[in-house]
């Protein structure tokens, strides 16, 4: 387990900033303690410094995971967010989309959402913007990039 390099930190923060914007600082400096990001087996973990100090006694080859997995770096050094990061990103999301109950199940099975399946959408959401998708009961479902097509063809969310 090691700290992220400058390049890895930049790539990861750019990806997270697509979803939460300037609220990125709130992830690191939390009222319940200081948290940090650590890399282990190409996966980025979000862990408190208290737990990090306790884990220093465990050798790296025996350590499976630590904290919450935020995502992983691909072989081409791109960063992909995991669904486990959703609980930390959802409260700070800049752009949100709410899906009607009829379209929710279809979306969770991997299908697109038509404009008729949208309940609400945050104003000024641009095309290819990172959004957090909510059910109408304000339960975060997933984070995606929204793709808005021409007005006659509707709005699509790609899972």
TrEMBL record:
<dbReference type="InterPro" id="IPR005155">
    <property type="entry name" value="UPF0113_PUA"/>
</dbReference>
<comment type="function">
    <text>Required for proper 34S pre-rRNA processing and 60S ribosome subunit assembly.</text>
</comment>
<dbReference type="InterPro" id="IPR040598">
    <property type="entry name" value="NIP7_N"/>
</dbReference>
<dbReference type="InterPro" id="IPR055359">
    <property type="entry name" value="Nip7_N_euk"/>
</dbReference>
<feature type="domain" description="60S ribosome subunit biogenesis protein NIP7 pre-PUA">
    <location>
        <begin position="1"/>
        <end position="83"/>
    </location>
</feature>
<keyword id="KW-0690">Ribosome biogenesis</keyword>
<keyword id="KW-0539">Nucleus</keyword>
<comment type="similarity">
    <text>Belongs to the NIP7 family.</text>
</comment>
<dbReference type="Pfam" id="PF03657">
    <property type="entry name" value="UPF0113"/>
</dbReference>
<dbReference type="InterPro" id="IPR036974">
    <property type="entry name" value="PUA_sf"/>
</dbReference>
<protein>
    <recommendedName>
        <fullName>60S ribosome subunit biogenesis protein NIP7 homolog</fullName>
    </recommendedName>
</protein>
<dbReference type="Pfam" id="PF17833">
    <property type="entry name" value="pre-PUA_NIP7"/>
</dbReference>
<comment type="subunit">
    <text>Interacts with pre-ribosome complex.</text>
</comment>
<feature type="domain" description="UPF0113">
    <location>
        <begin position="96"/>
        <end position="141"/>
    </location>
</feature>
<dbReference type="InterPro" id="IPR016686">
    <property type="entry name" value="Ribosomal_synth_fac_NIP7"/>
</dbReference>
<dbReference type="InterPro" id="IPR015947">
    <property type="entry name" value="PUA-like_sf"/>
</dbReference>
<keyword id="KW-0694">RNA-binding</keyword>
